[in-house]
Amino acid sequence: MCPGWVKASLRRFTLPFKLACSVSFYTHPLTLSHSFLSAQKTIGSYFYSTSVYANCKISKKFLPTPSFSCSFSQSASLFQSNHSCEPMDLSELLEVLEHLAPLSLAEPWDNVGLLVEPSKIHPVKIVLLTNDLTIPVMEEAEAMNCDLIVSYHPPLFRPIKRLLQRDWKQQLAIRAVKAGIAVYSPHTALDSVRGGVNDWLIGGVGSGRVSVLSQAASSIPPSHKLEFTVRNQEELKMTLAELMDAGVKLPYTTTRSDDDGYNVCLTCPDSVLAATVQTLSRYVTPKESLAILQLTKPPLPGCGQGRQSILDEPISIATAVHRIKSHLGLSHVRLALGDQHTLESEVTTVAVCAGSGGSVLQGVKADLYLTGEMSHHEVLDAVAAGTSVILTDHSNSERGFLSVLRERLSVRLSDSVSIKLSQRDRDPLEIL
Ligand SMILES: [Zn+2]
Questions:
Q1: What's the 352 CA to ligand 1 centre distance in angstroms?
Q2: Can you state the subunit structure given in the record (predicted)?
Q3: Model confidence over 124-155: pLDDT tens digits?
Q4: Is the per-residue pLDDT at 223 higher than 80?
Q5: One domain for residues 242 and 389
Q6: What is the pTM of this model?
Q7: Is 398 annotated as a binding residue?
Q8: Which candidate, 119, 114, 78, places its Cα nearest to that of 96?
Q9: How does residue 412 score in pLDDT terms, banded at 50, 70 and 90?
């Protein structure tokens, strides 16, 4: 690629970027219209703005995820009418789960979605929500004749070459199959989605202006925009006919150029780029005028890993500890005071990451980090940078969101489905 093309790509970025964003909003299953995502662009991230969902005409199954700025109970109450008692099968339930947290938002290393599928198709009557699928939770599921376990963490993560009883995770998979229980995991898709686990976590510290730490991008395939000129209508027809013959089916736009020719603009996916360029290179005018612009995947405002909040009203570290304990239902958390901090030091900016936040929080400037776990050396780094750290133990920073998930599911599922929170699921670590 010549340097001129690179320059053109940068110069022209603004318009396609906005256009592509607008398209992705409409196709994003969590959103109903562009107006719901009136996000305000800032440098490298997006601050949330208040969204109101009250006036939407939508089917119950595809209700939008409540905005972070609404209280979850208020949002749910908007949609509690029209309950049906129709039986729901697994595929319908999976559709609802996918719309609550699109799996395309999950991290590439993750293993999300349907992990165990029973062979018998029957209506789903009982859904069990758990943070971790452990042996006690499986016993609980079997005892209640559960049909679907939604386990936030994927119980199957690494590739499996055999299914043996001596491995406790493989044994769980065997038991699920035997009992006809499906297993589904949303994991990092639920962390990332707007209004998901990380938004819920940071909401416990107090209201504020929230931005995403690691911005998620649209899942649309990478593509290029090609612009070239043809001398006349005849050449335009021939060029397009050749592209069609080469199997390239492209939407295109044309505008008249100053010298009676036509400027043609095509957007093509990377998979057909080489064939398209090869075809165009057979014609002198298109070849000499050809400009290729790489289109970047647009960011999805409000979605991604980790969150940062600039609090509406600064609080002390002691108050932050109190609020977090109360939000997560914990009697204890661990605190590392940042350099020069005391319990009365002011907290204005907070960064959170549910679960294990070391990598996402690394280097983020904030008065306070909140996460489930960080390594000793990651905590030392934060403290030396003047950031206090609150650790809750891994799953204690995630589990409380299951109640929110149950609420969201209950307004979207038929009354024939009973949604239960596991009573046996808990963090394996205890502070005595
Ligand atoms: Zn986790």
A1: 13
A2: Homodimer. Interacts with COPS2. Interacts with THOC7.
A3: 999 999 999 999 999 999 999 999 999 999 99
A4: yes
A5: no
A6: 0.75
A7: yes
A8: 114
A9: very high
Distance CA 309, CA 315 (A): 13
Question: Which CATH number is 350's domain given?
Answer: 3.40.1390.30
Q: How far is the CA of 187 from the centre of ligand 1 (A)?
A: 7
| Mean pLDDT confidence for 66-91 | 54
Cα pseudo-dihedral 364, 368, 370, 371, rounded to 10: 40
CA 259–ligand 1 middle distance (angstroms) = 62
Residues 99-127: pLDDT tens digits?
Answer: 999 999 999 999 999 999 998 878 999 99
CA angle 25, 357, 421 (to 5 degrees): 75
What is the pLDDT at residue 233? 85
Distance 395 CA to ligand 1 centre (A): 6
Tokens for 70? 């609404």
Residues with Cβ within 8 Å of residue 124, at least 6 apart in sequence: 87, 88, 89, 90, 93, 147, 148, 182, 417
- Ligand 1: distance of its center to the CA of 152 in Å? 8
Look at residue 379 and tell me if it is in a domain.
yes
Dihedral sign (CA 36, 42, 44, 50): negative
**What are the structure tokens assigned to 230, written together?**
């043809």
Question: What mean pLDDT value characterizes the chain?
Answer: 82
Q: Is 313 assigned to a binding site?
A: no
- We report the CATH number of the domain holding residue 259 as 3.30.70.260
CA 29 – ligand 1 centroid, Å = 24
- pLDDT value at residue 384: 98
pLDDT digits (tens, 9 = 90+) for 341-367: 999 999 999 999 999 999 999 999 999
153 is in an annotated binding site: yes
Torsion of the alpha carbons at 57, 79, 48 and 192, rounded to the nearest 10: -110
> How far, in Å, is the centroid of ligand 1 from the Cα of 251?
43
Q: Is 427 annotated as a binding residue?
A: no
Same domain, 280 and 364: no
Residue 26 Cα to ligand 1 middle (Å): 30
Q: Give the dihedral sign, CA 258/259/260/262.
A: negative
